[in-house]
């Protein structure tokens, strides 16, 4: 039983280390001011609140006795590992970002532009906001600047027709408005 738990934690920590290595290698992450503030608040929550709560949970679970068969203790240690991994990811992200400058330019599409587009094949109209990838919420109309549609729209102007390559072929999009 202990051997399986050790193997599980080794595998878990190896995955965390791989995630951290990927973050270190990656390019600077684009962040808006609001996203930066949100990530900083999340980091503070994890460090100042969650870390203490988990430490108390570990202390409480230790009081139950034999740690080798103590499910509460192992669960608390797993929560601790996940919390520390999230803290490490956020710290790395916050040490390697580029702040996206706000722009009032409505002539061209840029990050943070709100656009109204028409998919010419289906005549469907959509309102989208182009955001840094970390802020993308497709179901809320926030698409990533690195997505096929988002990257294709960047730099273009109103009334342009943009061919966008997607897995199913070419999607023709007309830009109706830029806000």
Question: Characteristics of this structure?
Answer:
Helix Hairpins, 2 domains, five-stranded mixed β-sheet, 7 strands
Describe this structure in words.
The chain has a 5-stranded mixed sheet with strand order 5-4-3-7-6. The protein folds into 2 domains: 98 residues, Transcription elongation factor, GreA/GreB, N-terminal domain (Helix Hairpins, Orthogonal Bundle); 65 residues, Transcription elongation factor, GreA/GreB, C-terminal domain (Chitinase A, domain 3, Roll), CATH 3.10.50. The protein is elongated. The mean pLDDT is 87. It has 179 residues and is an alpha/beta fold.
What is the fold's blueprint, element by element?
Layout lengths: L1 H24 L3 E3 L1 H30 L8 H24 L2 E3 L14 E6 L4 E8 L10 E3 L3 H6 L7 E6 L2 E10 L1
Parallel strand pairs: 1-2, 4-5
Antiparallel strand pairs: 3-4, 3-7, 6-7
Helix pairs in contact: 1-3, 2-3
């Amino acid at each position: 039983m202990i051997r399986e738990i050790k193997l599980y934690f080794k595998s878990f920590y190896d995955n965390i280390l791989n995630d951290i290595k990927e973050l270190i290698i990656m390019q600077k992450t684009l962040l808006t001011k609001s996203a930066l503030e949100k990530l900083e608040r999340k980091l503070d929550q994890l460090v100042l609140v969650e870390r203490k709560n988990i430490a108390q949970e570990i202390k409480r679970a230790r009081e139950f006795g034999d740690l080798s068969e103590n499910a509460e203790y192992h669960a608390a240690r797993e929560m601790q590992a996940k919390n520390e991994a999230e803290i490490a990811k956020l710290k790395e992200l916050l040490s390697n970002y580029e702040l996206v400058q706000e722009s009032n330019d409505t002539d061209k599409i840029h990050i943070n532009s709100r656009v109204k587009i028409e998919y010419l094949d289906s005549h469907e109209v959509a309102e989208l906001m182009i955001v840094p990838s970390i802020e993308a919420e497709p179901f809320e109309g926030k698409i990533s600047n690195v997505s096929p549609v988002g990257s294709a729209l960047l730099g273009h102007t109103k009334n342009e027709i943009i061919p966008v390559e997607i897995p199913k072929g070419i999607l023709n999009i007309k830009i109706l408005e830029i806000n």
